[in-house]
């Protein structure tokens, strides 16, 4: 007599993983990963690695430079106590061959996968936990304004330049006029109402603007208005980027 019985056991990984994407106006993204040990015992983490999709390249931002050498901020400690957590940061940049198609990305997009290799006790076989990464692509409408160059830090009341790029995501030609509107913290330099020219569908147009900030701290770049003369429609672009405004060192000891 023989008895064959199939038993199914539920397996719950001891690591809870949360991911969050941060969008940028320069065709790149930042991925924040939070890993927490939700079990009652210690978990050893051997490896955490990101494998981006074919459209992106990924760079780890999980090291600090100490005396000319890159070191892990967690040190040589490779384990997580119960309810202990860690954060990892990655920079994903859109490959050049896909940059012109970035506006065509819609809906839920596969961004690659995150592999975590862990084990409960030293000497036992390691386990692989894989998290599929997905991101809801932002909708840009018929026109998108992105920044090609912008300084990280500027001097209070001193002019600086930014380079903007407009992408026509519609299926028709546009005839564009640029207008800059001052705000409480921004003064735009140059003439407003400039004619930018005609922009065919799926095409881009770049231009440079000069402005200065009147307030210290982390300030937004706002007040860009672009009008399509053919449709008589105005697109408003506010808070397109942030810069750190510092005081001038002239006259200080």
Q: Tell me the fraction of residues in β-strands, as a range.
A: over 45%
SSE sequence, one letter per element: EEEEEEEEEEEEEEEEEEEEE
Question: Strand order across the biggest sheet?
Answer: 1-2-8-4
Structural class assignment: mainly beta
- Percent helix, as a range, is under 10%
What is the terminal-to-terminal distance?
96 Å
How many strands, which pairing sense, and closed or not: the largest β-sheet? 4 strands, antiparallel
Shape: elongated
Overall number of strands: 21
Number of helices: 0
Mean pLDDT: 87
Organism: Camelus bactrianus
Protein name: Trafficking protein particle complex subunit 13-like
Keywords for this entry:
single chain, 253 residues, mainly beta, four-stranded antiparallel β-sheet, elongated
Describe the structure.
This is Trafficking protein particle complex subunit 13-like. The chain is mainly β and 253 residues long. Helices cover 0% and strands 56% of the residues. Strands 1-2-8-4 form a four-stranded antiparallel sheet, with no helix packed on it. The chain has a four-stranded antiparallel sheet with strand order 7-3-9-10, with no helix packed on it.
Helix and strand arrangement:
Elements: E1 15-23, E2 28-37, E3 43-52, E4 56-60, E5 64-66, E6 69-71, E7 79-80, E8 85-94, E9 108-119, E10 127-136, E11 143-149, E12 153-155, E13 160-168, E14 174-180, E15 186-189, E16 194-199, E17 204-213, E18 217-221, E19 224-228, E20 233-237, E21 241-246
Parallel strand pairs: 12-21
Antiparallel strand pairs: 1-2, 2-8, 3-7, 3-9, 4-8, 5-6, 9-10, 11-13, 13-17, 14-16, 14-19, 15-17, 18-21, 19-20
Protein name: Trafficking protein particle complex subunit 13-like
């Amino acid at each position: 007599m023989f008895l064959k019985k199939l038993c199914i056991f539920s397996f719950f990984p001891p690591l809870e993983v949360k991911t969050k994407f941060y969008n940028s106006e320069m065709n790149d993204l930042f991925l924040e990963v939070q890993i927490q040990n939700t079990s009652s015992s210690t978990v050893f983490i051997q490896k955490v690695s990101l494998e981006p999709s074919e459209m992106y390249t990924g760079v780890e931002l999980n090291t600090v430079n100490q005396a000319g050498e890159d070191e892990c901020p967690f040190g040589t400690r490779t384990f997580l106590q119960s309810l202990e957590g860690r954060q990892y940061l990655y920079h994903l940049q859109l490959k050049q061959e896909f940059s012109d198609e970035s506006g065509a990305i819609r809906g839920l997009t596969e961004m690659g996968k995150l592999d975590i290799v862990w084990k409960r006790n030293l000497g036992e076989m390691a386990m692989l936990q894989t998290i599929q990464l997905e991101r809801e692509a932002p909708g840009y409408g018929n026109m998108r304004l992105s920044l090609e160059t912008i300084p990280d830090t500027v001097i209070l009341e001193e002019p600086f330049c930014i380079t903007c790029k407009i992408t026509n995501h519609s299926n028709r030609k546009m005839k564009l006029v640029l207008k800059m509107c001052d705000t409480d913290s921004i003064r735009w330099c140059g003439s407003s109402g400039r004619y930018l020219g005609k922009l065919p569908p799926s095409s881009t147009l770049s231009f440079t603007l000069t402005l200065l900030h009147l307030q210290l701290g982390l300030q937004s770049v706002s007040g860009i208005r672009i009008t399509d003369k053919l449709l008589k429609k105005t697109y408003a672009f506010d808070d397109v980027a942030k810069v750190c405004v510092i005081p001038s060192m002239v006259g200080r000891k």
